[in-house]
Amino acid sequence: MTVDESLATATVKLRNPDRDVTVTAPREVRQLLMEVGMHPDAVLVIRDGELLTREDVVSPGDVVEVRPVISGGSR
Amino acid sequence: MLCRRCRARAVVEVPRANAAFCGGCFTEHYVRNLVVRAIRHDRMFGHADRVLVAVSGGKDSLMLWDVLLELGYQVDGLYLGLGIGGYSSRSQAVCQAFADAHGARLHVLDMATAEGFTIPDAAARSTRPACAVCGLSKRTLFNRVARDEGYDVVATGHNLDDEAAVLLGNVLRWETDFLARQSPVLEAVPPSMVRKVKPLYRLLERETAAYCVIKGIDYVVEECPLVEGNTQMRYKGLLDQIEAASPGTKHNFLFGFLEKGRAHFPRDGVQLQECTECGSASPAEVCAYCRARRLVTLPLVTLPQAIRQ
């Protein structure tokens, strides 16, 4: 019996620079952020245009964006 | 996780308030109250004033424009074309799309056309960091447009993270003149300098970004290509580490300074005069912006001679 890997993974879209990372799913957002090395206070996690909290669960097949919130330079 | 206010599913955590909110309570109550408190506490402007919001296409300035429109203020936007390639083009398009969607007025000032140079030009020919030249240009040109177009106030999207990082830098270098001037309100110097205010100084930038996502405000997420190595970014990173261990540290650092520390750094009473080239208030005969512009717009062949002088 073969296993469809997309059913056990989620896609994480990282920004600046843009790149995709695959993580195993399901898992809580807090675990996902630890795996990709991001601090929860420095990013927003977005799925289908909706914000997720650290306690929300990312399911297999989901695509989530991890968007940095720190911006610099002059204003 | 439930919203502290209405008990619906929460989408935003606010560790410094030990709270979480649903989208509606976060945007319409938590964020709006902090902006209103800033405007009222610091007497920034009233509904009879004409406000010019300096918009970059980033989350903070567009969020500020959105909140002020919703609060019923007379507010227009100003986008400054810095000439930073595709980054500037995308930023202007986002600002224009916001203005069109909200039926709001957007002024656009293109630096290459109006001033004869761009920020990359300036960065290449100045000894100052790109962000320093950019900041100087923005302060001068925002003020000039506001003054010429009859606005009462210039509002910028500086947030709590910005202000705390600037404060940290000023303390680390003991920049006493800058500490004396760091404030959410810079009073007007008639007739040349318009009042400047920072209505987002009580909000963390994670909160302004969350507001944009919840409200569906499209903003430029990519960083300016000239920002690499920016000192303020390093200070923000350091403050984030402290904040993670002790939520509320950034707030206490900034507001402790504003309430208790700033009084120890009195303004030195420098006499200002009108810049002979642009009319801005300046401690020198020619203001810092016009001196920088002269250097940047000189033909390259005359640069060595100009430097010798």
What would the keywords be for this entry?
heterodimer, A: 75 residues, mainly beta, five-stranded mixed sheet, two-stranded antiparallel ribbon, globular, B: 309 residues, alpha/beta, six-stranded mixed sheet, 13 helices, 10 strands, disordered C terminus
Provide a short characterization of the protein structure:
The complex is a heterodimer of chains A (75) and B (309). Chain A is mainly beta and 75 residues long.
SSE diagram, text form:
The complex is a heterodimer of chains A (75) and B (309).
Chain A: E1 9-14, E2 19-24, E3 27-28, H1 29-36, E4 43-47, E5 50-52, E6 57-58, E7 63-68
Parallel strand pairs in A: 1-7
Antiparallel strand pairs in A: 1-2, 3-6, 4-5, 4-7
Chain B: E1 12-14, E2 19-21, H1 23-41, E3 50-55, H2 59-70, E4 74-81, H3 85-102, E5 106-110, H4 111-115, H5 119-125, H6 130-149, E6 153-155, H7 160-172, H8 176-181, E7 185-186, E8 195-197, H9 205-215, H10 231-245, H11 249-261, E9 273-274, E10 281-282, H12 288-297, H13 303-308
Parallel strand pairs in B: 3-4, 3-6, 4-5, 6-8
Antiparallel strand pairs in B: 1-2, 7-8, 9-10
Shape of chain A: globular
Helix/strand order of chain B, N-terminal first = EEHEHEHEHHHEHHEEHHHEEHH
Provide a count of the helices of chain B.
Answer: 13
The strand order across the widest sheet of chain B is: 5-4-3-6-8-7
Distance, first to last CA of chain B? 66 Å
Strands of chain A, total number: 7
Largest sheet of chain A: 5 strands, mixed
What fraction strand of chain B? Answer: 5-15%
Largest interface: A-B, 25 and 46 residues
**Element pattern of chain A in H and E:** EEEHEEEE
Structural class of the helix and strand makeup of chain B? alpha/beta
Instruction: Give the overall pLDDT of chain B as a whole number.
Output: 92
Q: What percent strand of chain A?
A: 35-45%
Given as residue ranges, the uncertain stretches of chain A (5+ residues, pLDDT < 50) are none
The global form of chain B is: globular
Using only C-alpha atoms, the radius of gyration of chain A works out to: 13 Å
Which regions of chain B contain 5 or more consecutive residues with pLDDT less than 50? Answer: 301-309
